[in-house]
Amino acid sequence: MKKRFAFSAFALAGLLAACGSTDDGGSTNGSGGSESSEELTLLEQIQEEGVIKVGTEGTYAPFTFHDESDTLTGYDVEVMNEVAERMGVEVEYMETQWDSMFEGLNSERFDVIANQVGIREDRLAEYDFSIPYTLSSAVVVVPEENSAVSSFEDLEGLQSAQSLTSNYADIATEYGAELVQVEGLAQAIELIKTGRAEVTVNDKLAILDFQKQQPDAGIKIAAEEGDVAESAFMFRKGNEELVEEFNKHLEEMQEDGTLTEISEKWFGEDVSQ
């Protein structure tokens, strides 16, 4: 399991270095449409326009969600904003459902996705990733009165509420669960509370935050994976310069403590390394 979901920064750096840049520099880029922009890399287009387009859900607390004043915020949003500030560009968030984000990146509506995207070998075949900025583990969530589920093996034959293309849907499937499609964590919790699904597999940090925000939600963590999953910014292939730019700023944020500060603000501990 660890080999499947964890991916070391060292190995990732090697893969990114192997990706190489495009010869024409413009065919895979999403920003701009002028003839001159076709000569530019995506990073150069972003720098020229002064805006980076970011795909995110906006409904996945505490990573990307709207606060009481309807302002988009969260851990991923703050990390993304800090990277953009160090790049000297503005951020334009484009909110969409999880299952639509990959299509949005493929169709060049976004330049990057900031939404706790797990680094997986199958995704590395199609996309590039930055170095990780979150380490967490998967958990099984059930109604608090449920005493029948205490391990991932107990998922066999149960209905699990999941976003279909998420890491956690894959985990639920691997353990034999039947998937019930949802648009996000809040809907998954609602389904298991109302009996329309029996469990959900999700990110431990997201569940802990949900319980903190809604202590009377009536759910509990029934099981936790021992292996750690890494999440990072995800890019279309062929934009190596942009990936390297992100990595440079993320490394700076690790060294000067900014990433730790953002992490502790949202989780009370450093989940970035």
Describe the structure concisely for a colleague:
It contains 11 helices and 14 strands. With 273 residues, it is of the alpha+beta class.
Question: What features would you describe in this structure?
Answer:
Strands 1, 5, 6, 7, 8 and 14 form a six-stranded mixed β-sheet that branches. Strands 2-3-4 form a three-stranded antiparallel β-sheet. A three-stranded antiparallel β-sheet has the order 12-9-13. It has helices spanning 2-5, 9-19, 42-49, 75-87, 98-106, 121-124, 167-174, 185-193, 204-213, 240-255, 258-267, and strands spanning 51-56, 59-60, 64-66, 72-73, 90-95, 112-118, 127-129, 134-136, 138-143, 159-162, 178-181, 200-203, 219-224, 229-236. Strand 2 and strand 3 form a beta hairpin. The two termini are 19 Å apart. Residues 1-35 have low confidence and may be disordered. It is 37% helix and 23% strand. The longest helix is centred in the last third of the chain and has 16 residues, at 240-255. It has 273 residues and is an alpha+beta fold.
How do the strands and helices of this protein lay out in sequence?
Blueprint: H1 2-5, H2 9-19, H3 42-49, E1 51-56, E2 59-60, E3 64-66, E4 72-73, H4 75-87, E5 90-95, H5 98-106, E6 112-118, H6 121-124, E7 127-129, E8 134-136, E9 138-143, E10 159-162, H7 167-174, E11 178-181, H8 185-193, E12 200-203, H9 204-213, E13 219-224, E14 229-236, H10 240-255, H11 258-267
Parallel strand pairs: 1-5, 1-6, 10-11
Antiparallel strand pairs: 2-3, 3-4, 6-14, 7-14, 8-14, 9-12, 9-13
Features:
three-stranded antiparallel beta sheet; six-stranded mixed beta sheet; 273 residues; alpha+beta; globular
